[in-house]
User: What shape does this take?
Amino acid sequence: MDRRPTVTAENIDWLRKLRNARAANQPSPDIPTSVVRKLLLACTEVKPRERSIGLRDRDELERRKQSG
Assistant: This one.
């Protein structure tokens, strides 16, 4: 069962306003909190195996930092 909220036309309009403001190099409009929450929840996907870095992964990242 997918519990993510459905993105509405109003939400898409807010995304367009953000895009247009950024393209015109203008400040972003104030988006209502309810719209932000809905967009974040609609776009977020939790992958249980990828939510944390294991010890081996962390060690590998450290080795790459030191050698690079």
